[in-house]
Amino acid sequence: MIPVLIRGHNLETVYYRMLTKSSSITRGTVLIICRYCSNINSSKLTEILEKTRYRKKPPGGSRYLPEPNKVFHFNAWDNVQWNEEQEKAAKEKVELNSQLTFTEDRLKDLNINADKHWDAFYEIHQNRFFKDRHWLFTEFPELAPDNTTAPVRVYPSDGENTTTIQNGNKVSQAINNKRYIFEIGCGVGNTIFPILQYSTDPNLFIYGCDFSSKAIDIMTQNKLYDTNRCKVFVLDASKENWEVPFHEKSLDIIVLIFVLSAIDPTKMNIVINQVYKYLKSGGLVVFRDYGLYDLAQLRFKKGRCISNNFYARGDNTKVYFFTQEEISNLFKSAGFLEEQNLVDRRLQVNRGKMLTMYRVWIQGKYRKP
Ligand SMILES: C[S@@+](CC[C@H](N)C(=O)[O-])C[C@H]1O[C@@H](n2cnc3c(N)ncnc32)[C@H](O)[C@@H]1O
Known about the structure:
Order of helices and strands: EEEHEHHHHEEEHEHEEHEHEEEHEE
Distance between the termini: 65 Å
CATH superfamily of the largest domain: Vaccinia Virus protein VP39
CATH architecture of the largest domain: 3-Layer(aba) Sandwich
Strand order of the largest sheet: 4-15-16-11-10-7-8-9
Number of strands: 16
Strand content: 25-35%
Number of domains: 2
Bound molecules: S-adenosylmethionine
Helix content: 10-25%
CATH class of the largest domain: Alpha Beta
Mean pLDDT: 79
Oligomer: single chain
Radius of gyration: 23 Å
């Protein structure tokens, strides 16, 4: 089939055929080409799609969009700058969806049953929803097995291992060379399992918690769950007191990946203060979460807003969208030193449907002095 170009209004509609990613079946699709592509003709487009089927990330892991009209050459572009017009449109969209319409009873349910709503989520999706975080080691080399910039370990003066009982839990004291990582809101293990798979370090031990008992059940049934190398348990991290199988000041790294956003903004400081308490001096927090005006925020319809930049999804799980400043203030006021605070703006492209999607994530590293 020869591509046909149909012009209409100020958009270009192209009838074209392409090879699907999974097979070599050809198919015809009607597409709307956004303004970025207006100077790509249809045969050129077909050529681009086919030429770039096998697309590898360049060395260094980032790919920058050299010219706007090359947007459909690859699936994703890193560090895409927003212009004023785009920022203004996003702000207006958020203002539109920020009207508060939940009743007191609904708000109470969202709050009291937050863990149950996540249980229901995992009941449906099991371990199929979140993808393994294989980007972890690029963003956070501290988590990589051969990491050389890991937080300095603090060795106690007497060199013996001890075990004590705290809140009914067996607690091993870190009087050895072990490195302890703790992930809060570990879900079904999409961060913990990649770390365990990449690392064979016998001195690495990973703890994980989630307030969804369903998530913890699913995780412990996974064949990758190895009790010699990790332990996960149910914990609501927004509580003032934690019942955990380790001591205060005993952890090397705490991982907060897409979890703080699920917690009520009025309780976020409790979480960060607890994190501070359980990290060793010199220990590190690695953080990544949703940023203000991320696609997921702009997609909310009216009636889902709980408070500023905080929403309930259709399945009643909650999500907050952060600014860099908010993250900085949260950690600094708990006593942390800021080592990294960046906004990662990525343009994701659905080349099949010719859609562009702007993702915004905030990433940070905070060290306990
Ligand atoms: C968006 S998911 C992210 C899961 C995982 N960190 C990942 O990136 O794949 C948020 C997770 O945080 C958990 N969560 C939400 N509030 C929590 C709380 N107060 N304490 C512990 N876990 C919580 C949810 O049950 C859910 O598993």
